[in-house]
Q: What sequence folds into this?
């Protein structure tokens, strides 16, 4: 799960919960806002979380991260985030989210978006259950 923006935290938390309920590990950039919300939602559902942080310290990761990958490569860690999942759900977002979406698409990962910027090849949804169902269905087929 990728993205940013405080106003999208409720949707991100629901995405995290729904993914965990389906047995998915929730991977994010591990910093704040929607990334923290997705981890919080996953943990509330008994799920496992991974944070891939840009800096050099485990302490950067949100408190809900079970496993932390410290990259020390700044924004370049966006490729690691996009490549680590089987599919990508963008919630909100800005330039970093656009980069992660582009990497995921280049890698052939299915990408869906909730409230994010329009990107060719990315299906947009308004609610978390539909977005989660769509990305998981694309993995089944």
A:
């Amino acid at each position: 799960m990728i993205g940013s923006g405080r106003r999208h935290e409720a949707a991100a938390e629901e995405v995290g919960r729904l993914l965990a309920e389906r047995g998915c590990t929730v991977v994010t950039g591990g910093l704040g806002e929607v990334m923290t919300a997705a981890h919080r939602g996953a943990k509330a559902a008994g799920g496992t979380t991974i944070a891939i942080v840009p800096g050099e310290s485990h302490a950067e990761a949100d408190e809900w991260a079970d496993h932390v990958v410290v990259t020390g490569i700044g924004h370049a860690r966006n490729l690691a985030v996009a490549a680590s999942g089987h599919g990508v759900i963008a919630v909100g977002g800005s330039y970093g989210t656009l980069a992660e979406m582009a990497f995921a698409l280049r890698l052939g990962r299915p990408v869906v978006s909730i409230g994010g910027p329009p990107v060719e090849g990315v299906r947009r949804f308004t609610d978390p259950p539909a977005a989660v169902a769509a990305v998981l269905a694309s993995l089944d087929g």
Summary: The chain has five helices and seven strands.
